[in-house]
Amino acid sequence: MELWAGLGQAATVAQLVGVDAGGLITLITQAALTARQNKKACEQLSRRVYMIADLLPHLQQPELMRRPEFQRPLAGLGHTLREAHDLVMLCQRKSRFYRFLNARSLADKLRDIQSRIDSYLVLVPAISYIALTHNLNRIDSLRQNHTILPPPASTSSHSHAVPASAWEGVARFTLAEIAAASNSYAFFTKVGKGTSGTVYRGRLHDGRDVAIKRISKSARDREMVLRTELTVTPHPRHSHLVRLLGWCAEEDERLLVTEYMSNGSLHDHLHGRKPPSSPVTASWKTRVEVLLGASRAIKYLHHSFVPSVIHCNIKSSNILLNAGWTPRLSDLGFSVRHEAGVEEHHYQPQVVGKGGYMDPEYCRTGRLTPATDVYSFGVVMLEVLTGKPPIIATRGEEEQGEVQTDLVHFALPLIEAGELDKLLDGRPEPQPTALQIEALQWVANTAVVCLHRRSILRPRISDVVANLEIALRLASS
Ligand SMILES: Nc1ncnc2c1ncn2[C@@H]1O[C@H](COP(=O)(O)OP(=O)(O)OP(=O)(O)O)[C@@H](O)[C@H]1O
Fold it and tell me: What is the distance between the alpha carbons of residues 370 and 365, in angstroms, rounded to a whole number?
C-alpha cells in the first residue's frame, strides 16, 4: 500500500518501535475499510495511525534514537499499534450476537486506543524536535571547542619526506617556519583578505612560493575552517583545485599553506583593477576556459568522493589563476560531505552570508545538496558573461535613485527574452564572431538552468561541464 512507502525506508524506526510498525499500520488501514461495526471509530483510528505513519520517518539518526530518553516514550507505541489492529479486526466479526455483546465495550476500547494514539501524535514530533536540537548543540560545541586533530603523519618542512598516508605531501609547519616564509606577515606580503582571515605571500626554505592564510583570531569558526580543509577531502588532487601544502596550529595561530596563484582571482579580473590586457578580461575564449576548469573541479568534488563533497562557497574570488592562467578552485574550509538521498540540514554561515551567490532554496529550507554549488556557479557564469558583480546598482524610480539588485534578477529576464547581446561585457572582443556568440549563448542557457529556483530542476555539475566543453569548442573555432 502506497501510504507506507516512505516509512519502508526507515528500518530503524521499526526496530525502535519494537514491531513491524509499517506492516501493522498498513493492516489497520486495510481492516478499517471493511469493519462491520463501529465503522466510524475504525475510520477515525485509521486516519490517526496514518498520521503516525507520516511522522515516524522523522525519527531517524539511529544512534541518537537508541538512547533511553528517546526510546522510553516510544516503548509503548508498538504495543498500542498491535492492540489497535486487534480491535479493528474484532470490528469485522460477522456474528450478530457477538456484535451485540461486544458493541459497547469495543466502542470504549476504541476510544481509549484512539486517545493513546493521539498522545503519540504529540510525542513523535516532540522527540524529533528534541533530537534535532540535541544534534545542533552537538555540532555547535564541536565547532567551538574542538581542538585540531593533527593529521596522523605530520611532517615538518625540513623533512618533506612523503608519508605513506592520506596526508601525502601535506606538511605540518612550525610557527617559526611560517614567520620566516612570510617575513613575519609583513604588510608587503599581504595579497588579500576574506571573512575568515588574511592571505600572505611567502617563500618556503626550499624556494616554493606559497600563499599563507592566517585564520583570524576573531573568526568564530576558525577551528572548523582548518579542520575542514584538512579532513573533509583527504588529499584532494585535481589539476583545477588549489593544492594544500601544509598547515600550522601552534599557540593561538591557525594557518593554512597553499600553492601560490600568481595571477589572482577571477573576481580581480572581472571586477578589480587588473590591467585590460589580462586575457581573462580581454578574451571570451579564456573566460570560457576558466569556467570549464572551475566546473571540472566542482565535478571532481561532487562525483569523486563517497559521500560527495559540497564546496559551499563557490564564487569568483575563490577561482584563482596560476602563472600559466590555469584556473583552480580554492577554499574548502566550509565544504561538507553529502550522502546522496540523505536529507541533511546544515547551517553554513558562509553560504547563508554571501550575498548574490546564495541558493534561494537553501536559504528557505536549510537543506544543502550539490545543487547549492550549481546555483552559485550559475551566478559565476553570469559574472563572466556580463562582467558585473553578483550584486549591482541599478537606477530605481526617480525618487529612489540607485537601488541594489542581484545580477540573477537583472540578467535572467534578458537571456530568456533572447537579448543576450544587451548583457554582454564590452571589454572582450567588441565584435564577437558568430561562433563566439553561439558559445556565449550556450553558457547563458546553462546559467539559466543552473539558477532554477527549485534545486531538483537544476542540472548536475557533470552536465554543466559537458555544456561548457561544447561552448569552448565553439569559442575556439
Ligand atoms: N593560493 C592563493 N594564491 C594567491 N592569492 C590567494 C590565494 N588564496 C587566496 N588568495 C587571495 O586572497 C584573497 C582572500 O582569500 P580568502 O580565501 O581568504 O577570502 P575570499 O575567498 O576572498 O573570501 P571569504 O573568505 O569571505 O570566502 C582572495 O580573494 C585572493 O585574491
Answer: 14
Calpha distance 356→391 (Å, rounded): 6
Task: Please state the CATH superfamily assignment of the domain spanning residues 164-259 in this structure.
Answer: Phosphorylase Kinase; domain 1 (3.30.200.20)
What span, in angstroms and rounded, lies between the C-alpha atoms of 447 and 385? 10
**Contact status, residue 427 vs residue 387, Cβ threshold 8 Å:** yes
Q: Where are the domains of the chain?
A: 2-144, 164-259, 266-476
Task: Give, for ligand 1, the residue of 265, 270, 351 to mutate: max count of ligand atoms closer than 8 Å to Cβ.
Answer: 265
For strands 209-215 and 197-203, give the pairing. antiparallel
Cβ neighbors of 291 (< 8 A, separation 6 or more) are: 380, 381, 384, 443, 468, 471
Q: From the CA atom positions of the chain, what is the Rg in Å?
A: 29
Distance CA 171, CA 163 (A): 9
Residue 173 DSSP class: P
Could you name the CATH architecture of 266-476?
Orthogonal Bundle (1.10)
Residues with CB under 6 A from ligand 1: 191-197, 199, 211, 213, 242, 258, 260-261, 264-265, 313, 317-318, 320, 330-331
333: nearest Cα among 406, 242, 436: 242
Instruction: Return the ligand 1 atom nearest residue 194 CA.
Output: 19
DSSP category for residue 335? -
Give the model confidence (pLDDT) of 358-408 as tens digits. 899 988 888 889 999 999 999 999 999 999 999 988 776 666 677 788 999
Q: Specify the pTM.
A: 0.67
Among residues 246, 184, 244, 256, which one has the least CA distance to residue 219? Answer: 256
- 164-259 and 266-476 in the same fold: no
Q: Which of 441 and 23 is assigned the larger pLDDT?
A: 441
User: How far apart (Å, rounded) are the C-alpha atoms in residues 438 and 441?
Assistant: 5
* Å from CA of 307 to ligand 1 middle: 27
Ligand 1 atom closest to the Cα of residue 331 is 17
List Cα–Cα distances, 371 to 266, 309, 337, 397, in angstroms.
22, 12, 13, 35
- Residue 338 near residue 332 (C-beta atoms within 8 A): no
Which run of H or of E encompasses 180? Answer: helix 175-181
